[in-house]
């Protein structure tokens, strides 16, 4: 296995708890895969300790680590890429409390705190270090400490009053910027919480590229990741799981904040500002923003143009950008004409020009209310492939693997290496090439002792296949047991019917052999002494021998017919002519028919079907025996068993088995195909259930019609085999 075709495995720390974050992680992995030209597989570590153990043992190529983990593993890593947020690769931690119960450092004693996780930097380690630097010990300061796993859970615990304080990472020690972060977690509930204390900064969390990753691949990843949001791709949604706007290669623990970085975004309100928030230029497609006319705003401050409510968060962001020296982003809510809207703002330092006399900042403000309204249902839908517990993959029509969810990689670890040669991919492509009609049973793949049933859907733009793989091993084992039980039951039911059929030839075989022996004993002495033997005696012996051979041949044919039923079905289907199988089933039941009913046959030309002959024999025997057993032997003179076989208008094979028995009630008819549903004490109740399974497994249908006192009609419909020429054309 070479480095160029094996997947790059990335392990993420376990604090990503939302469905949308899981989806964004998967989107991020897919974007990386496209840019790297090889699969990038991301999975969540169950614990922070597990992630550290995987890093220490060198079993992972890449990992998203906390700030502490990045610091610890940076010396032995190929590289560490720090996350950039609001233009900085440093961040703070903010202590959060309820707005109606404000706290200060002096009033923390005896309060309850909700931490994120023991290894979470912003949610535990950084605030603890800050308190300890002030001479406060958390274990004595707080009356209760709890770890809830995610920032959202910690914030919600404070909202519900279950805790008094929690800690949240903060890109800047600014209350307005912190409110934007709170809004991204809590939406309209954000104003109920407030920050009251900020810690010192620390280097940000980020991606650790380990030495398991070849140097060339590491350099390619560094190039891709550091340019992802500055090359015009606009991958803000892909950065969503980490709440970052880009990456920068870590320059070391003592590095200053980042240098200016350009940004891309969609326009709603665009302009340029000076360091005081004065409008150098301001433009909107409609000439209006936030419900106000913004034309002629040049020379005026933002507050004069947009009003206090709209300009206050923008001025807060402007100050943060000036302090950080790089671009910044902010999302906030605003009531415009009685309607609450959501805005995303970006402020970016502009490249200086010779005529500039001061700082010049670019401004972009977008109304993202519609996007936010659609996000939750969008992520619920988009999360299905990622969180689906069973394998799901997408293929090109040439077998190229476009996407595989984590369950696929776990179940088929050699999928990437084998590509189109993998049995699962081959089965899906074969199904598609055959042009299988709707309703045809899904292909099943047997791998490493397990059975995988595939559901294959055609994709059209671009052309491809979506494949679901379901582990049906237990079902297959149960079906095998049911088939075996039914086969034994059918053989038992046949014993009486076939017994009579075998007794007749066996009786005259034995009688003839006895006659021949007696005749030979009588003629032995004359023959030995060379005396003439009457010709009539020899003719009688020869006639008896001929009848004996005929009887033995009949016995042989009966045994062969029984072997068709009892043998193990092959792994693959073949083209089977239906009429000979139906004739064999009727031959096996000749003895039973003679005592039960008169047979009426109506057979016509039919196409072949793709099936297993043993299963098909079992199917017809079950249906015929069921029909015969519905009719009493006392009415044998009047009973009729009608068997018809023909081709339907749709080109399908139809077989009808109709009896003139007592029929079924509507309640019994409703349960006729359920296992163990039977009205006869000497029946297992498996025959029709197994028959239904056989028919549906062949892509057909089995229907039952019955009226009490009128008999029962069972109708089998089977799809015709695909013509060879058509199959070749599809390939």
Overall morphology: elongated
- What structural class do you assign from the helix and strand content? alpha+beta
What would the average pLDDT be, to the nearest integer? 80
Tally of alpha and pi helices: 22
Distance between the amino and carboxyl termini: 30 Å
Strand order of the largest sheet: 2-1-3-11-4-12
The H-level CATH homologous superfamily of the largest domain, spelled out, is PAS domain
Pfam families: HATPase_c, HisKA, Phosphonate-bd
EC number: 2.7.13.3
Domain Histidine kinase: 497-722
Enzyme class: transferase
Could you characterize what this model shows?
This protein is an alpha+beta fold. The protein folds into 5 domains: 8-86 and 206-249, Periplasmic binding protein-like II (D-Maltodextrin-Binding Protein, domain 2, 3-Layer(aba) Sandwich); 90-203, D-Maltodextrin-Binding Protein, domain 2; 268-375, PAS domain (Beta-Lactamase); 389-568, PAS domain (Beta-Lactamase), CATH 3.30.450; 574-724, Heat Shock Protein 90 (2-Layer Sandwich). Helix 17 (578-588) crosses helix 19 (613-629) and helix 19 runs antiparallel to helix 21 (687-697). The model is unreliable at 230-240, 257-267 and 724-731 (pLDDT under 50). The protein is elongated and about 140 Å long. The chain is 40% helix and 24% strand. The strands form 7 sheets. Strands 2-1-3-11-4-12 form a 6-stranded mixed sheet. 36% of the residues are buried. The protein has 22 helices and 31 strands. It catalyses: ATP + protein L-histidine = ADP + protein N-phospho-L-histidine.
